[in-house]
Each structure stands twice: as structure tokens, then as C-alpha cells.
Amino acid sequence: MAKRIEAVGVTAYYGSFKAIDSITMTIEPKSVTALIGPSGCGKSTFLRSINRMHEVLPGARVEGRLTVDDQNIYDPDVDVTAVRRVIGMVFQRPNPFPTMSIFDNVVAGLRLNGVRSKPALAEAAERALRSANLWDEVKDRLNKPGASLSGGQQQRLCIARAIAVEPQVLLMDEPCSALDPISTLAIEDLMLGLKDRFTIVIVTHNLQQAARVSDKTGFFSIDAAGEPGRLVEYDDTEKIFGNPSVPKTRDYIAGRFG
Amino acid sequence: MGKPIPIRPAGASVPGEPPHPPRLAPASALGGGGPRRRTLSADAVFRGVTLAAGAMVLVVIVAIAIFLGYQAVPALGRNSANFFTYQDWFPDSAPPAFGIAATGFGTVYTAVIALALAVPVSLGIALYLSHYAPRQVATALGFLIDLLAAVPSVVFGLWGRDCLYTPVRELSAWLNHYVGWFPPFHGDGPYGRSFLLGGVLLAIMILPIITSLSREVFRQSPKANEEAALALGATKWEMIRTAVLPYARPGIIAAVMLGLGRALGETIALAMTLGNTNILGFDLVTNGGTTIAANIANKFGEAGDTGRGALIASGLFLFGITLVVNVIARAVIFRRRELTETAV
């Protein structure tokens, strides 16, 4: 199920602006990897280049090699939609489809994959909602609009939508930044439960969150405004938060910078 | 939690307690009532002016309605035929006989043809402009579409009459020959100045309004939802079907209704291109056909007293149809606004 991701010299551009420079890192399967760093350091850009969502923006492009279980997803003959079906994504703000019910939101990805059978959809929806710890809260109102849920529930609905298609990697781009502490805790618990099945990569501004949920942590930073983001240090989370080897990381963790 | 704060309407007194003192300090406490009173009276004047402007609209509408009714009722009284089911238009013969069966049918039929042709093309252009075209192309093409909306309808009429006539005549003959088994395409000719010509011209005329309104709603579709669909592995078209079209549907309906409103009311371009005979049938290709508005434009000059009244009566009926269409369009737009406000 879960897959190993290897980035070798991944460089991403917005037009002529180089946003990240030559990122090289290996992300282990069935683990949670946190990407931390100050705003504008390119961690979200790197995350979005893992499922080729970076190139959705006009003028954006990626150079380098990014392999998922030895398949370079930037090979010219790779189907980008196939990549995104294997690598799911959860966004910063909850974004359920506003015109769809809770049920339709969860199975939207399956319907895109051509699943039409009602029992199969219902079963997959229940499985995904249970995995997202949302089933008990919504099982009696699956036909209500997704937008009728609270912000935290909407974000768990988006997680359910992402995992319903059984991806192998789950990318989360600051998934808790729009949520209150209790909803945040619910999502962190959820991540710990999901890492048995998925390779999870999370971008977060919340250092405690990175320390709580991740096995490995990558610290991104920029040398100066306008410079591309770099991976400064990447190691076990305990090492990064306990005894980082690069002074810049230590300063950031201690709150003296960024 | 502290002691709950009792909530009651302002000024309401509780038994046993003295009534609330007035919240606002009297004007004198603010250094005299002079300047304050002046602002208040300026407010009152402004309020009066805007109220008068608003009331003016109502007065004009009522005046129009009374005028139309006053002119139409005597003519309707002299009508020897059923106004709604009679096909021909002889208001100045003795006895007068006129009805809107053919003109009313023509109005709706040309509008339906125009919608059938214009809606798919408009939605295609709008999607191309909002989601496919490079920015420069979208800007230039969008400008051209808006320019198309600014062409006066009499110019459309001249163009349709001179440039569109021959191709439509040849197309009509071809349709009759090869697809004539389908009743609307069957006609003995002569071809050209037909419902088909009017419908095609009308389609071109309502294309800009439907295109630019639906382009706006397509543009407003939330980027976050588009990204969500793409991240699920949707192709661009699947993304549009999942995240753009369902969101835009009420807006599309409203755009189509406004286009329909314009098509129903179009006058001069149809007066110049239709055959102007009161036929009541689905034959698209043979010369003939008219609409309420085109009939008014063609007959008003030579009409006598009853003729004018009769034309005004048909205008009143057309006004009723367009009013209903517009009200439905507004209602749909209004509902959509409520929907998006609660959804966000």
C-alpha cells in the first residue's frame, strides 16, 4: 500500500521565480513526515510538487526527479491524473464541494474513477468516514450538504474524500490552520491512526504539532527574501527538536528566527 | 460561566424596576442642538430626494400600464374574433378581427430556436474563456463578445437580411431535400425569409449576454474546489463537471432566462428578416412567420384607431410574457445568492 518517495534535485519555479532549489530527501512509507519552516520557504511548493499539483498554476514548472516506488512521476509518459489518484491531498482550508451532499463528497473521487455500483459506493463511503473518525457524527445525515458541517468536520470530510480512493500517499497542506484546538487534536489523532496505511507528508506552521505527530521532520528555509527555499535539515523528529545539527534549525525551533 | 445576563427589548421595563433611562444623551449635552439638527435636516432632504426618485419609477410604470390599458381596452371590445386564438390581424376591417395566435406563437418559436442554437455555443465559449484560453486570448475574445452585444439590433437586421439570407436559403433547400422527413425541416419553399433565418440571427444576438454572464459564474467557481477535484485525479473536463458546472448551474439558468427575455422582445431585426405572414406552424424553412414585436413594428405606421389599440393590446401581452421570464430569472439569481451566502 504505502509507498516510498524519493526526491532528487527537485527544483520548482513560478514563471521565472525559483521557489525551491534542488530538494533531495527520502520519505519513508507508513510514517508521518512533517515539513516545517518560515512562510515563503517553499515547503508547500515542495508538497504540491509531490502530486504534480504545483504545475496547475499558470507558468509553474518542476525540474528534477521525484520517484514513488522507483517510478519517476515527472517522466513525460506518466499520466498526471494517475499520479494524483495514488497521491491524495488535503488542503489548508476545508474545501468540500458546496453543491454536493456529505455522501457525494466522500465518493466524488470514486465516481471519477468510474465506480457506479451503489453498494460499493456506500461501503467505501462508510469505510472512509470511519477512518476519518466522522462516521458517528454524520451517519444519520449523509444526504445533507457537506457545507452544513462545522469547520473541523468539513476538514475530516475532506480527509475522508481523499482516502476513499485508497491512495498510497496522503499530502496535507497545513490541514489544521483554519481549525480550533479541539478539531486540530481530532485530526492529529486521525493522522496517527492513518499512518499504518498511508505515507503521510504534512506541512505545518505549528511546531508542537510537528513534534507530536511526525516521525521525521524536514526544516525548510530561505537565505534571504527572493531567494529560493532550501531543505536545511532533515532527520528524525526527536533529533530535530532535541538536538538539531544545524544552528539555523536550532534558532528556528527555539523561536529566535522566522 | 458567570451569572446569566437578562436580555430584554430596549426600553422594556421590568415590574418593580424603574424604566430604562434613554440611552442617548440629549443633544444639549453634546454642545447644543445646532450642528446636529442641521445634519439631520440634510439627511431628511436627501432621504426625500431619493424617495422621490424611487417613487418616480413606480409612477412611470403605473402610467404606462394605465396608458396601455386605456388604449387597448376599446380595441379589444370591438374585436369580433378571439384575441388569444385567432391567427390573423385585420383590426381595421369591418368588423375588426385580430388575434395573437400566430404572432405569439412566432415570438415563442423564434426565441426557442435562438436558445437551442445559442446556449450550447455560448456555454462552450464561456468555458473556453474562463478555463482554457490563455489570458491574452481570453481578454481579447471577451472584449469582442462584449462588442457584439453593443451592435444595434437594426444593424443586425440589415446584416441578416443581406448577408445571412443567401446561406440560410441554401441551407433550407438542403435541409428540405435531405432531412425533410423531420417536420420542421419540411417546406415547399420559397426558402430564406423564414423562422430559421430569424432564429439564427436572434441566436447571434443573444449569444453575447448568455456568454458573458455564464463566463462570470464560471470564473467565480471556487479555486479551492477546482484544486480538490484535480487532486482527486480528475482530468480538466472531469474537474469542470465536478466543481464548476454544478456550482454554476443556477447562474447558467439565470443567464439563459435573460437571453430568453431579450429574444422575446427583439423587434426590428426580426421585422427585417422574417417573412411577416401570420403563419401558425413549425415549418422552419419556408418564407413567412412573424412575432408580436415585429408585427407591431410593421403595422404601426399604417394602423387606424382600432389597429393601434389592437397592437397595443398585443404589446401588453408581450410585456406580460417578458415580465414573467424576467421575474423567474431574478428569482433564480436571488436564490443562488442566498445559497452561496449560506454555503461559505
Could you characterize the architecture of this molecule?
The complex is a heterodimer of chains A (258) and B (344). Chain A is α/β, with parallel strands linked by helices and 258 residues long. Chain A has a single domain (5-253), classed as P-loop containing nucleotide triphosphate hydrolases (Rossmann fold, 3-Layer(aba) Sandwich), CATH 3.40.50.300. Chain A is 35% helix and 26% strand. Chain A has helices at 43-50, 80-86, 102-106, 108-112, 118-131, 135-138, 151-164, 181-194, 207-213, 237-242, 247-253, and strands at 5-14, 17-27, 32-36, 60-68, 71-72, 87-90, 169-173, 199-203, 216-222, 229-236. In chain A, the strands form two sheets. In chain A, strands 6-7-8-3-9-10 form a six-stranded mixed beta sheet, with helices on both faces. In chain A, strands 2-1-4-5 form a four-stranded antiparallel beta sheet, with helices on one face. The radius of gyration of chain A is 18 Å and the shape is globular. The mean pLDDT of chain A is 90. Chain B has a domain at 103-309: MetI-like fold. Chain B has a two-stranded antiparallel ribbon with strand order 1-2. Chain B is built from ten helices and two strands. Chain B has 344 residues and is an all-alpha fold. Chain B has helices at 34-78, 101-132, 135-150, 153-178, 195-220, 223-231, 236-265, 268-273, 292-299, 305-343, and strands spanning 89-90, 97-98. The interface between A and B is medium-sized, with 29 and 23 residues.
